[in-house]
Amino acid sequence: MFDIIAVDISGRHKVNNEYLMVCAAVAVSVTADHIEKVNQMALRSFRSRSAPDIQSVVKMVETTVSELKSDGVIVTEAGDFYNKPQWLIDSMFTRDFKYQESISERRCIEIAHHASLSSRKLLLKELDIQ
Amino acid sequence: MMRAILVKRNDPRSEDEKNELQMNELRELAGAAGYEIIFEMMQTRHPDRKYHLGRGKVEELAQVVVDLRPDKIIFHNPLSTMQIYNISETCRCETIDKFQLILEIFATRATTHRSKLQVELARLEYELPRARAVISILKKDERPGFMGLGGYEDSYAQDIKNRMTRIRNELETIQKDNESLRTHRHSKGFSLAALAGYTNAGKSTLFNALVDENVESKDMLFTTLLPTTRSLKVEGRDILITDTVGFIEDLPHWMVDAFRSTLDEIFLADVVLLVVDSSEPFETVRKKLLVCHETMWDQLQDVAIVTVFNKIDLITDDELQEKFTGLAYLAPNSVAVSAKTGFGFEQLKSEIRNILPEWKRIELIIPLSEEGMSLVAWIYDEGLVHDINYTDVISIDFEARDKVINKAISLVNGLS
């Protein structure tokens, strides 16, 4: 069994002249093909006037992950970091990082994606932003 | 034999090793399609909108075509209709990309009605987004005036859509037949296992060795296009094992859709045997496993996977151990086998047996009569008999599915 932290960010597009983003980090214990246990989940919202560049994405992910008590390798989709090579992104993190590989890692990112997307929708509704 | 030139554009700062692997795969694909490779060309740059490669490189390619006279130019990278047109015009030679090459292989190997339909559907799916552009380019000098070819372009695209709907309907009928066959097999007590894995991992060789069959197996990509199913006894339990088509890197979604009825054999199985060629270098095995995970992850629901490290007769114990440890996060329930020598088959079978849905064990007393004997014969067919004693009654100790046990109990009650 391996401990990983799957991360996904929703809202990386302009709404009302700003970027309203939600980052979800899910700490999970997995095997190669199954999710064994979801240990913890953290959600953080971020606002920005400009489109997120790689450094700000790294910062958002690090901030959200720091709220988790569980350890593990941070796993994301390659698209979240503009498909840049893994070694380059890994060097920018203070923790271990990798792109998604196994079936279970992909499923965990799917969970993170649903969490970030639905919480962003809820936020936009509460703030009355179309 | 047809002659071909292979061309590949590498992304700047991409890994040399990865580029070489991709080129090697293209070579093997071209070989499988029956081409003799007479020249190879590579360029590292960002894609050009008009020619994909740089214009100068395409002119160089045109000169090579004049000198060597190949039948085709095969690109590793996906090309747009405009790029294909421009390259073909400059080089005066038919130009295709990797996906068209795969379609060619599938088309030449398709023998049954179902596989022919699948290939035709994949070809149309590939053609549809290009249909308007193709007509537009081909007839660009024939536009008589305002709105010149508009109607014709639309009707061609519409025609392709109609043909696709027709083929999908026909495939759906075949799929329904297969689904009912699958349900029937499940209800007969068979569990389903599917051999999946990267193309040329040795799935067909393993299948042949396991079930003692003679399915065509070659050291070539995409030898198997149609699933073949045979029964296999695994520690007393009957399972149906299916040999399937292999995966390949960057297999586009439309192709997965077109071959859905084939891939369903994998997605609807109880156990997936993920076959890996362990004789390849560590990084290659990892990349191929990645492709398998990527192709399957969205479709597999609650299916157990057994990773079969095949061809272990070609590597040392240390190399195998290194792959087992290093790839544990991608290879669930690993088993090492050699389809060639038969090594590891027992362990593979016991791994499959552990994963199969549970059967219950029960002891029944059946009256010694003609009906009782036919009930015993039925139990032998449907379950696994551990012990049987004939006295004035028949006492039988057997293992079977819930449904069979319940039916046997009610039949015994009816008899006594």
Automatic annotation (TrEMBL), chain A:
<dbReference type="Pfam" id="PF09974">
    <property type="entry name" value="DUF2209"/>
</dbReference>
<protein>
    <recommendedName>
        <fullName>DUF2209 domain-containing protein</fullName>
    </recommendedName>
</protein>
<dbReference type="InterPro" id="IPR014514">
    <property type="entry name" value="UCP021940"/>
</dbReference>
UniProtKB/TrEMBL annotation, chain B:
<feature type="binding site">
    <location>
        <position position="204"/>
    </location>
    <ligand>
        <name>Mg(2+)</name>
    </ligand>
</feature>
<comment type="similarity">
    <text>Belongs to the TRAFAC class OBG-HflX-like GTPase superfamily. HflX GTPase family.</text>
</comment>
<dbReference type="InterPro" id="IPR042108">
    <property type="entry name" value="GTPase_HflX_N_sf"/>
</dbReference>
<feature type="binding site">
    <location>
        <begin position="197"/>
        <end position="204"/>
    </location>
    <ligand>
        <name>GTP</name>
    </ligand>
</feature>
<keyword id="KW-0547">Nucleotide-binding</keyword>
<keyword id="KW-0479">Metal-binding</keyword>
<dbReference type="InterPro" id="IPR006073">
    <property type="entry name" value="GTP-bd"/>
</dbReference>
<comment type="function">
    <text>GTPase that associates with the 50S ribosomal subunit and may have a role during protein synthesis or ribosome biogenesis.</text>
</comment>
<dbReference type="InterPro" id="IPR016496">
    <property type="entry name" value="GTPase_HflX"/>
</dbReference>
<dbReference type="GO" id="GO:0005525">
    <property type="term" value="F:GTP binding"/>
</dbReference>
<keyword id="KW-0342">GTP-binding</keyword>
<dbReference type="InterPro" id="IPR045498">
    <property type="entry name" value="HflX_C"/>
</dbReference>
<dbReference type="InterPro" id="IPR032305">
    <property type="entry name" value="GTP-bd_M"/>
</dbReference>
<dbReference type="GO" id="GO:0003924">
    <property type="term" value="F:GTPase activity"/>
</dbReference>
<feature type="binding site">
    <location>
        <begin position="243"/>
        <end position="246"/>
    </location>
    <ligand>
        <name>GTP</name>
    </ligand>
</feature>
<feature type="domain" description="Hflx-type G">
    <location>
        <begin position="191"/>
        <end position="360"/>
    </location>
</feature>
<keyword id="KW-0963">Cytoplasm</keyword>
<keyword id="KW-0460">Magnesium</keyword>
<dbReference type="Pfam" id="PF13167">
    <property type="entry name" value="GTP-bdg_N"/>
</dbReference>
<keyword id="KW-0175">Coiled coil</keyword>
<feature type="binding site">
    <location>
        <begin position="338"/>
        <end position="340"/>
    </location>
    <ligand>
        <name>GTP</name>
    </ligand>
</feature>
<dbReference type="Pfam" id="PF16360">
    <property type="entry name" value="GTP-bdg_M"/>
</dbReference>
